[in-house]
Amino acid sequence: DQQVKQNSPSLSVQEGRISILNCDYTNSMFDYFLWYKKYPAEGPTFLISISSIKDKNEDGRFTVFLNKSAKHLSLHIVPSQPGDSAVYFCAASAPGGGADGLTFGKGTHLIIQP
Amino acid sequence: EPEVTQTPSHQVTQMGQEVILRCVPISNHLYFYWYRQILGQKVEFLVSFYNNEISEKSEIFDDQFSVERPDGSNFTLKIRSTKLEDSAMYFCASRSAGPFNEQFFGPGTRLTVL
Predict the structure, then answer these.
(1) Closest CA of chain A from B19, distance in Å
(2) For residue B64, how far is the Cα from the chain centroid?
(3) A109: closest CA among A14, A38, A34, A24?
(4) Which of A32, A56, A111, B44 stands 20 to 30 A from B59 (CA)?
(5) How close does chain B come to A11, measured CA to CA in Å?
(6) From CA A17, how far away is CA B89, in angstroms rounded?
(7) How does pLDDT run across B56-92, given as a tens digit for each residue?
(8) Residue B97 pLDDT grade (very low, low, confident, very high; cuts 50, 70, 90)
(9) A 81-100 residues with CB below 8 A of B?
(10) B1 — pLDDT class (breaks 50, 70, 90)
(11) Which residues fall within 8 angstroms of residue A68, CB to CB, at 6 or more apart?
């Protein structure tokens, strides 16, 4: 039962262009969403988050959009840089309901091409 | 910048043996977590810990698993009798107080059960 889905296992983007990573969820109790970046043999690194009371959050080159009615969120990276090449995980939790263990998607491997 | 640390980085054990994985969370954090990632699969939540007790656990976290905060700095995960399928990367995470605060992950311990 995949409560958090990342349907694109990989994505290739030209350096300087926009990278858009997508994530869908099924559990309507989720009210907090996070994006993590992960390199091989390292732990996930927090990038950006959004709570369900917002529909957009921006931090530098990273913007997360949340569409609650569609149960969909996306991460935009612009401009994309070679160092952005990594696996990106979407994660969700329901901290307001006391269940704040994160449910992760399977990840999208982003490859930035020079 | 404060970070979550984990030891050892790699643990090899025989099936049926007990292992203890250790974590030092970020010092002012109050919530602690263990996750695991089996090779090629997604990161899975195991357990959360707050105020010296388990606050949430997943189906994976059965009687073979236990967690402890033996002192003011360490947070441990014990597997009493390891099985082959326990082989995975184990990540510790922590976060500060408040419902919508991101979890920070350690670099992980690679557990190999032979």
Answers:
(1) 20
(2) 14
(3) A38
(4) A32
(5) 17
(6) 33
(7) 999 999 999 999 998 878 999 999 999 999 999 999 9
(8) confident
(9) 89, 91, 95-96, 98-100
(10) confident
(11) A52, A55
- By residue count, chain A amounts to 114
CB neighbour list of residue A48: distance below 8 Å, 6 or more residues apart:
A34, A35, A57, A59, A62, A63, A64, A75
A63 forms beta bridges with A58, A76
Note whether B7 and B75 are within 8 A (CB): no
Nearest CA in chain A to B103: A46
For residue B106, give the nearest of A43, A100, A105 by CB distance.
A43
The secondary structure element, H or E, covering residue A74 is strand A72-77
Q: Kindly state the average pLDDT of the residues B17-30.
A: 95
Strand partners of residue A16: none
- CA A106 – CA A104 distance, rounded (Å): 7
End-to-end CA distance of chain A: 37
Mean residue pLDDT of chain A comes to 94
Is residue B101 predicted with pLDDT exceeding 90?
no
Segments of chain A scoring below 70 in pLDDT: 1, 97-99
In this complex, which of A43, A46, A106 lies closest to B102 when CB atoms are compared?
A: A46
Q: Are A52 and A32 spatial neighbours (Cβ–Cβ below 8 Å)? A: yes
- Count Cβ–Cβ pairs < 8 Å, chain A vs chain B: 60
What tens digit of pLDDT does each residue of A56-72 get? 999 999 999 999 999 99
* Alpha carbon A52 to chain centroid, angstroms: 14
